[in-house]
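Q: phosphoserine transaminase, please. Structure only.
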Amino acid sequence: MANTIPAARPRVPHFSSGPCAKRPGWTLKALSDAALGRSHRAKIGKDKLKLAIDLTREVLQVPADYRIGIVPASDTGAVEMAMWSLLGARGVDMVAWESFGEGWVTDVAKQLKLADVRTFTAPYGELPNLRKVDTRNRDVVFTWNGTTSGVRVADASWIADDREGLTICDATSAAFAQRLDWPKLDVVTFSWQKVLGGEAAHGMIVLSPRAVERLLTYKPAWPLPKIFRMTSGGKLSEGIFAGETINTPSMLAVEDYLDALAWAKKVGGLDGLVKRADGNARVIAKFVRENDWIDFLAVKPKTRSNTSVCLKFTDPAVTALPADAQAAFAKQVVSIIEKAGAGYDLGHYRDAPPGLRIWCGATVQSRDLKALLPWIAYAFNEAKASLGKKAA
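A: Structure for phosphoserine transaminase:
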């Protein structure tokens, strides 16, 4: 049976998991009011940075007594800032089930070299047993949504209400698309280039009053680089949480983030953003149900991401291949789609099992996903046919 080339292509074929698709209708004109050539310490710069913080609080529904700061080096910088500044006061439980979470484990165990570290891990597609994590007595570091596995925590019910330790949550591919349980979280980090489709290099850190108290009462045994310091002279550097950044931000990127936040408000704020991401994920779920050669990498439906949706090929002709050949097959599928201009940046993360990763965050249009899926089927059939030719 002939493999028919799909008739239509997505209008916006951008499905990267970071930097992600720009918000619908975005053009360079959205940046026309950027404070270019001006100091970020001038009133115009500080006002824009403060506005970015205020709109972030509004859209994400962050409690009024939590502090929000713009920090260097994207989400990675924000997570490292939190770990280097706060960990070491008590034992820490590290929870990881994908590449970035594993990275935080490595940094705590091999860079900070903390003595009392427990690690809870799970293979790609699954979550560790969260009931074994001691959230009452120990600090906890975890990702809310595993960007490279497509597995997320269903909720924060596993975190103790009467905890004495801190919870540090990497929420970079969850913020603005999933509901974060703020009372259960003491440090939350994310970046601009994920759900809202902003530009890279800028991170956000959100601190609960308990996290601030730790900053003021605990001094790490190691020296802190300047870009990690949130206190000075035993007091909190309040300016960080009012638009006075530690280092120089890109005012062009700031303007882009402000535009994305304004768009977020127009589509209904957090409710609207979650609805859009959930709707996109349902488009993928329908495709998976209708095709027996592909499935979610996430094993349980309730832990499947609505942003970084990861898929695996389940056709016996593919699963029988050696691991390197399965990876080559997945790359071939991606290459066919990209060469046709039907979808970009769909490949699995380098450390993840072979397959596809499709970003379904709020800036992606469902109509573009619906146009992409026939191309995935077409590319799969083309790649599978080539397996037979190679065997011959």
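A: Brief note, in case it's useful. The mean pLDDT is 97.
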